[in-house]
Design goal:
10 helices; alpha/beta; Nucleotidyltransferase, domain 5; seven-stranded mixed sheet
């Protein structure tokens, strides 16, 4: 038997410019003695995974998986690129945006080492999914749902629910999410997305952690909404993937406007600087006939 752990996270929740990106990383761990499957997975992979760039390549540490914000503090994407490329190789996927960054020989060699090590440890990375919400779609969802927190929750749970049917029928599921907009209560949301699941058990609801159990498609599921969930490896990999895709999108966004305004300073899209940027491109935007709602997120 296996147990599946779905780690989720987002990038771009706060900005006014650029997309909101959500990602879900699906892990499997063969059943062991522990009843805490997340702890079991992290204990098993500890010999080969590190969250510290300085430890990569030392003492058997093959793969960097950690807090995406800390890893991107330098503004350099290569750490995120290298780690996400390993994840894509493990799952047999290709992100077109990353093809120019692939060093086939070294990337494949490291990824194969990671694959073999994970197999020996009774762990596998099954899939990694991402959804990119453009400003236009963000504004449409916001208009329908009313607030950002509900928007984040609904898109995240949709991503999770759509992934469940693709899992083999040989194990139960733990879902790990960050807190959405600081909210602590999620049972109504879960009933909305899993109306046929029967009784949803509330194990705990609080500021650091909210946990629920339900049944879906003949398997047991546990949802954990946890503050700073990306300190755990399944959510950390999702965080890194979302952050990388968001930053690549912003690079393309800035390049587009700089072809018309060569002296324009790039933006990360966050409040204050986003106002500076949208003001400087205003005349060009109007000349190009691009609606402001295609660029500017209302919240």
């Amino acid at each position: 038997m296996k147990h599946y752990i779905l780690g989720t996270d987002e990038a771009g929740y706060g900005p006014n410019l650029g997309p909101l990106v959500l990602s879900c990383a699906v892990w499997a761990v063969s059943s062991g003695q522990s009843v805490d499957h997340l702890a079991e997975l992290e204990q098993r992979v500890a010999p080969i995974i590190t969250g510290s760039p300085s430890q990569l390549g030392k003492n058997g540490k093959l793969w960097l998986v950690g807090d995406s914000k800390k890893l991107y503090q330098s503004g350099k994407l290569q750490l995120l690129i290298d780690s996400v490329l390993i994840a894509l190789h493990l799952t047999g996927q290709v992100f077109a945006e990353l093809q120019s960054h692939v060093n086939s020989e070294s990337d494949l060699s490291t990824a194969e080492q990671v694959r073999k090590s994970l197999q020996q440890l009774g762990v596998s990375l099954c899939n990694i999914k991402a959804e990119v919400i453009s400003p236009r779609n963000f504004n449409q969802l916001l208009c329908r749902l009313g607030n950002k927190s509900t928007l984040l929750s609904e898109v995240t749970i949709s991503l999770i629910k759509n992934e469940i049917p693709s899992l083999p029928n040989d194990g139960d599921v733990t879902v790990l999410c960050d807190k959405h907009g600081g909210r602590n209560h999620y049972v109504e949301l879960l009933y909305q997305f899993f109306p046929d699941s029967g009784w949803i058990e509330i194990l705990i609801e609080g500021t650091p952690l909210s946990v629920y159990r339900l049944s879906f498609q003949n398997r047991k599921m546990e949802f954990r909404f946890q503050a700073k969930a990306d300190r755990h490896i399944p959510a950390a990999l999702a965080s890194m993937t979302a952050k990388l895709l968001r930053e690549l999108a912003m690079l393309a966004f800035n390049r587009f406007w700089q072809q018309y305004l060569p002296d324009l300073q790039p933006t990360a899209g966050y409040p204050v600087d986003a106002l500076r940027f949208i003001g400087q491109i205003e005349e060009t935007r109007q000349n190009l006939g691009i609606p402001k709602s295609d660029l500017w997120r209302e919240k």
